[in-house]
Design a protein that fits this description.
Distance between the termini: 62 Å
Oligomer: single chain
CATH architecture of the largest domain: 3-Layer(aba) Sandwich
Number of strands: 13
Strand content: 15-25%
Shape: globular
Order of helices and strands: HEEEHHEEEHEHEEHEHEHHEEHHHHH
Helix content: 25-40%
Number of helices: 14
Strand order of the largest sheet: 9-8-10-11-7-12-13
Number of domains: 2
Length: 355
Amino acid sequence: MKDFQYELEELLTIVLKENASDLHISVGRYPTLRIDGQLIPLAQREILDPEYTENLISALLTKRQKELFLDNKELDFAYSFRNKARFRINVFYQRGFVSAALRLIPAEIKTIEELNLPPILNEFANHNQGFLLITGPTGHGKSTTLASLVDKINHEKNKHIITIEDPIEYLFTQDRSIIDQREVGLDTNDFSRALRSVFRQDVDVIMVGEMRDAETISTAVTAAETGHLVLATLHTNNAAQTIDRIIDSFPASGQGQIRSQVANTLLGVISQRLVPRLDGGRIPAVEVMIANHAVRNLIREDKIHQIDLVIDTHMEEGMISLNRALAELVRAQKISINNAELYSLNLQELRNFIL
């Protein structure tokens, strides 16, 4: 009889050894890694059958998690592996079979510099109040950037930091700051309720793992208005789309108010992509929008489509468009033109920048 705990740990060890970002477990397939954005099947292992897959995934779950999974047919949770790493895991059913996607969360929280992010991002950690959004597609490092900023505050300032996550990803070691990490489903019922509670918890900095609905967005913006630094993520492609998404989350009758609140509280929007490097691995291409006077006015006046122009004409303040970031990486021979084009939202503009 197979020891499925051993089998599981063997797979997780391979993830760490191969520096993979994800592991996929799905019936009828080899266990599959994602390395530098590419799916790589572990063809030296057996193709997964239904019984093996179910037993393997069962080894990840506590008794309570198994009950929740059976009730809800899907489950998000975090898993610690031998004090070496943590994994953010989603287990789910497909065609009646159990599957799982495991995302590696490195044990070490890297600095902005170590992550090859623009140094201007460090400035956002120096604010006492306001609203910063880290955006981009799934799997492009938003949580890692967020953790880096929180850890910078932790090491440099005496603050009370509360994180609200689903599930908890990076584990912070408290330094100069007090850090309370709350997991949705375990420590609180939902994001919006946890956010409402922070007003009674003497908090300075709030990290919201993901803003999923209008209530969460509204409470986060209110927290920024009332003297807190709020750091959050959103699944959007650039600064203009991010602000549109926030405002469009509200009914027409409430859009004027949220537009005014965002204009008053927004510090900036960071939109990032992890692009394959020519020498292996991935490197971030980052759009940086800083909410200066011009940006705030455009938000108030509902002229959000003009924000891209402000980014391009205020580079001296540290702003940079995604296309300029991609073009700089091409010129520095860090990424290929083909990969730059894959991640660009405006191909003609990108080509003009590269020429």
